[in-house]
UniProtKB/TrEMBL annotation, chains A, B:
Organism: Gossypium tomentosum (Hawaiian cotton)
Stretch forming the signal peptide: none
Molecular function GO terms recorded: carbon-sulfur lyase activity; transaminase activity
Protein known as: Alliinase C-terminal domain-containing protein
BP-aspect Gene Ontology terms: amino acid metabolic process
Domain of life: Eukaryota
Cofactor(s) listed in the protein's UniProt record: pyridoxal 5'-phosphate
Keyword Cytoplasm among record annotations: no
Length: 338, 338
C-alpha cells in the first residue's frame, strides 16, 4: 500500500497527489533532489529489454464476465494471478502463501487497506476502533482512515504514544516508508489487530530474512515491479472471515478488479519468477537489477548529502536507512530519482 | 452504476454477489427464468465477430506511471478514453459532453457512485445528508450508502415518501433498474442534489430522445458494451469543485484506475463510434445488434409470461417496461437471459 507519490513524514490532510496536478512538471530536471514528488518509472528500461516476453494481448470478446472464478472466495481474482502471486512469493521466500492462506486482489493495495479497515472493525463496538501507526509513517494513512468519517474506525495517531485502553488496529510498514526501517508492532496489547504493509519487502529494497507470516499482509504491484499505472495490489490473509469481509468491501466499492490489469500483473510476476528460478540464460533478474540501481542511487544520495554540509545525514546498513531530513522520504528518493 | 449482478427490487443488506459464490452455477440452464442472477455476456458473439479490430496489445514497459495526464483535472484519465467517451456520446446523442464538462473515470461506475456521495456531501453539515431514490430502485444503493457508516451521508429510503426538511441527494436511474421506466427527480426541492445514473441510456435499451444534461451523470462500460470484467465507468460532471472532489475520492480510494482497462475501453468505444458513423461497410453496429437481441428476448419473455397464467404481466411501449413480479428485474432479464 505504501505508494508515496507525493509524501512527507508528517501527516497531512492536504491532498498530496493533487498538488502534482497543479504543478505538472513533477519530475524536475534541476539538481535539487525533490523528495516530495515522484513516479516509480525506474524499472522501465528493464521491462523494455524484456521485449515480447511481458506483452499481453486481449481480444475484444475476452473478459466479458464479472466473475473470474466462482469457486474461489475471492470470485474476482483471476486464477492466473492467484497462481503467479503464490509462485513468486515461494521463489522469493518473502511471504507465507500456503494454500490455506487467502489471496485478495484489489485496485492497488490502497483499496485493500480500506478493505482491511472495514474487515477488522466491527459495527458492534460502541466506538470506532482506533487506527495507529508508529511515526514516522506513510503520510496518507491518516487521510485514508479519516476520509469518509466512518463510525467503524478512526485515526488515533502515533502508535508510540497510544495508551488508550480501547480496541485498536496497528498499521505496520516494513521496510518502513519513509525511513526504510524494519518494523514490528509497537503497542502489543492482547486482542490487538494489525495490518502489515509489506510493499517494500522485496529483495531490491531489503534483505529477505524470513517468510513473513502475519494475519493480514499487503503487497503492491507498483513497488514490486514498478507498474504503478496497473492498479493491482494483493492481500494475504489467514482468517476466512476477514478475507470474506474484504471481498465484500471490494464488491460494494467497485465490483471487483479489472481483468486486464490482473492478466498483465500475472504475466509480469510470472516472468520474474521464471527468471529467478532459471538464472543461467538471462542477465540480471528484476531484483538484481533493482538492487544495483538502489545501490547506485544510494551512492549518489550520500554524495549529495556529504556536499550539502549536513542538511541531512544518513547511513545504510543492510538496507536500514535512517534519515533526519524534516521531510524525508528516503525509500522514495532512492526509488524515484536517479 | 446499475450493474445488477444479483438483485431484487427490495433493498437488502445481504451481499447479493456472494450468494453467487455459494452457488456457482449462476447461469442456470433450466427453463425457469432466473431474474436474480446473471452476467452480461450477451454481447460476446458480437465482439468475437469484430476480430482484431478490438484487440489491445500492451508491452511490458508501458503504463509504468501513476499519471495519465497531469494537465487534466482527472490526472488518472487516459486521454484516449476521454476522447472516446466524448466522441461516442456525440455520435449517439445521449449526453452533453461539451468541453466544459469534466469526465471522471472510475473503477466501474460503482466507485463513481461512492465518489459522488462524497463529493455532494459536506463535513460542515450538522447531520449526514439524506440519500433517497424512488422505489423500485437498484437494490445495491442502500447497501452502498450505508456500508461504511459515514457521518457524511446516510440512506433515507424511498424518494416518494421523503418529507424531511433536510438536505438530500436523490439518485435517479433512467431507464430505471429494475423496471425500465424513464425517470426524473421526484422530490424537487430547492437546493437539492441529484445523481443521474444513466447506465442504460443507450440505444439498445431506450429511445434516445435528447442529450441528457444533468449536473452529475454516471455511465458504465459494462452496460454500454457488455464488458463487465473491465471495471470502467465514467461520470460527466458540470461543476469543477464536484469533479475535483470526485478525483480526490478516487485518489484516496485506489490512486486512480488501471490504464490497461482504460485503454481497452477506449479502443472498444472507438470502434462502436466508428461503426455508427460509417454504417455502409459493416453489418449491424452494437446498438442495432443489442436492440434486436432485446426485442427477441422481450418476445420470449412475453411468451413465458402469457403461459405462466398471470404470474407476471408486462407491457412494452417504446421500451417502457412495467412488471409486477415480486422480485422483478426486467431489464436484467432481457439483458442477461436468452
Amino acid at each position: 500500500m505504501v505508494v508515496g507519490l507525493v509524501e512527507t513524514a508528517v501527516p497531512t490532510a492536504k491532498s498530496t497527489i493533487s498538488s502534482v496536478v497543479k504543478k505538472p512538471t513533477f519530475l524536475s530536471s534541476d539538481p535539487i533532489i525533490n523528495v516530495a514528488r515522484g513516479d516509480p518509472t525506474i524499472y522501465e528500461p528493464y521491462w523494455k529489454k524484456m521485449g515480447d516476453r511481458c506483452k499481453v494481448v486481449i481480444a475484444g470478446d475476452e473478459f466479458m464476465s464479472y466473475f473470474c472464478n466462482t469457486m474461489n472466495l475471492c470470485w474476482f481474482l483471476l486464477p492466473e494471478l492467484d497462481n503467479a502471486i503464490r509462485t513468486l512469493h515461494r521463489v522469493v521466500g518473502n511471504a507465507m502463501v500456503d494454500d490455506d492462506r487467502f489471496i485478495i486482489v484489489g485496485n492497488g493495495s490502497t483499496q485493500l487497506f480500506h478493505a482491511l479497515l472495514y474487515a477488522l472493525s466491527s459495527p458492534d463496538l460502541p466506538e470506532p476502533i482506533n487506527v495507529v501507526a508508529a511515526a514516522p509513517f506513510y503520510s496518507s494513512y491518516p487521510e485514508e482512515t479519516k476520509f469518509l468519517q466512518s463510525k467503524l474506525y478512526k485515526w488515533a495517531g502515533d502508535a508510540n504514544c497510544y495508551d488508550k485502553d480501547e480496541p485498536y488496529i496497528e498499521v505496520v510498514t516494513s521496510p518502513n516508508n519513509p525511513d526504510g526501517s524494519i518494523r514490528g508492532t509497537v503497542v502489543n496489547r492482547e486482542g490487538s489487530k494489525a495490518i502489515h504493509d509489506l510493499a517494500y519487502y522485496w529483495p531490491q529494497y531489503a534483505p529477505i530474512t524470513s517468510k513473513a507470516d502475519h494475519d493480514a499482509m499487503l503487497f503492491t504491484f507498483s513497488k514490486a515491479t514498478g507498474h504503478a499505472g496497473t492498479r493491482i495490489g494483493w492481500a494475504i490473509v489467514k482468517d476466512k472471515v476477514i478475507a470474506a469481509k474484504m471481498v465484500k468491501f471490494i464488491e460494494v466499492s467497485s465490483i471487483g478488479v479489472s481483468r486486464e490489469a490482473q492478466l498483465r500483473a500475472a504475466k509480469i510476476l510470472g516472468v520474474i519468477a521464471d527468471d529467478c528460478r532459471n538464472p543461467d540464460h538471462k542477465g540480471e533478474n528484476l531484483f538484481q537489477y533493482g538492487r544495483r540501481l538502489m545501490s547506485e542511487r544510494w551512492g549518489k544520495l550520500r554524495e549529495v548529502g556529504m556536499k550539502s554540509n549536513g542538511v541531512f545525514s544518513a547511513c545504510q546498513s543492510t538496507h536500514e536507512i535512517i534519515a533526519n531530513s524534516p521531510a524525508n522520504t528516503l525509500i522514495q528518493t532512492l526509488l524515484l530519482h536517479g
